[in-house]
């Protein structure tokens, strides 16, 4: 068996195109332009690249992009004041504060200062609670992207057995909630799980989100399973730096029915779903129908 490759780049391009088309209609019919504000504190190189890409893709989708770059020594109170201004700005429908923040800032305090309706990262405690109780919420971008790809591949997920390896608040827990919402039978596995390989082998859908290079091997995967690799890890191999996921791609591809590559799988979906969430937030703020196929 050779697994079907789930092309995240192509899927993300389709999502961005659908977002852009909806944004164009909003402008023509309602005179509304969705706006995304991204706040970067400090000069973390990876964060700078990520924020720059977000700005480019936001503008390409026809949205307004508001970028706020603050020095690392910015006082927490000043950051909170900026968030309050963005909360009150009707041109801003989505707010994202890029993590990690400098050590002197309380990330939970900062994230929970964002208006939950504008929390396009889906990290605010109110959105976490809404998602956990099956209510309408802003959903974290990476799990949302995974769900979109799974729905596209399988159609209905109802009744499938899903194992999520990883219990982070950013991916593992919300991923499990989304799969439950689509009527999967869900297990969350982690570093303390007994006989992890046996648990994983029971999965029709296996989502790896642990941050450990190539941890999921072929003997841990049920033949024909769909494997979603959320991990992205930089390693040295044969004297060269390369990116790998949490899944041993070569080995697992020989067993799985479908698999996401790294890079080019889940990663491109994160920014695409950020744009989708901003569009959704804009529609909700204006009492307009939400875009079909771009929400959970």
General description of the model:
With 296 residues, this protein is an alpha/beta fold. It has 2 domains: 31-116, Rossmann fold (3-Layer(aba) Sandwich), CATH 3.40.50.10860; 141-268, Rossmann fold (3-Layer(aba) Sandwich). The chain is 40% helix and 17% strand. The strands form 3 sheets. It has a 6-stranded parallel beta sheet. The longest helix has 23 residues, at 8-30. The model has no long low-confidence stretch (mean pLDDT 96).
Question: What attributes does this structure have?
Answer:
2 domains; single chain; Rossmann fold; 6-stranded parallel β-sheet; alpha/beta; purine biosynthesis; 10 helices; 3-stranded parallel β-sheet; 296 residues
CATH superfamily heading of the largest domain? NAD(P)-binding Rossmann-like Domain
Text of the CATH class of the largest domain: Alpha Beta
- Provide the CATH topology of the largest domain: Rossmann fold
**Number of discrete helical segments:** 10
Number of strands: 11
**Low-pLDDT segments, ≥5 res:** none
The whole-number mean of residue pLDDT values reads 96
Largest sheet: 6 strands, parallel
Overall geometry comes to globular
The CATH architecture name of the largest domain reads 3-Layer(aba) Sandwich
């Amino acid at each position: 068996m050779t697994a079907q490759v789930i092309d995240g780049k192509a899927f993300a391009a389709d999502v961005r195109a659908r977002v852009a088309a909806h944004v164009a209609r909003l402008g023509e019919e309602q005179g509304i332009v969705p706006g995304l504000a991204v706040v970067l504190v400090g000069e973390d190189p990876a964060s700078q690249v990520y924020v720059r890409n977000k700005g480019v893709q936001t503008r390409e989708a026809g949205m307004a992009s508001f970028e706020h770059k603050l020095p690392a020594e910015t006082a927490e109170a000043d950051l909170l004041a900026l968030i309050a201004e963005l909360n009150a700005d009707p041109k801003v429908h989505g707010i994202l504060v890029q993590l990690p923040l400098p050590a002197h800032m309380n990330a939970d305090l900062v994230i929970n200062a964002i208006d939950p309706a504008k929390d396009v990262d889906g990290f605010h405690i109110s959105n976490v609670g809404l998602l956990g109780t099956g209510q309408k919420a802003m959903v974290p971008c990476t799990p949302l992207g995974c769900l979109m790809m799974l729905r596209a591949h399988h159609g209905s997920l109802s009744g499938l057995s899903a194992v999520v390896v990883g219990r982070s608040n950013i991916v593992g827990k919300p991923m499990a909630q989304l799969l439950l919402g689509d009527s999967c039978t869900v297990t969350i596995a982690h570093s303390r799980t007994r006989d992890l390989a046996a648990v994983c082998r029971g999965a029709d859908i296996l989502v790896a989100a642990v941050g450990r290079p190539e941890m999921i091997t072929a003997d841990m995967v049920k033949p024909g399973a769909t494997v979603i690799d959320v991990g992205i890890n930089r390693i040295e191999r044969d004297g060269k730096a390369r990116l790998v996921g949490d899944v041993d791609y070569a080995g697992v591809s020989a067993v799985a029915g479908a698999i996401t590559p790294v890079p080019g799988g889940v990663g491109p979906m994160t920014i695409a779903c950020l744009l989708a969430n901003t569009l959704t937030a804009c529609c909700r703020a204006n009492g307009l129908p939400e875009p079909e196929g771009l929400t959970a």
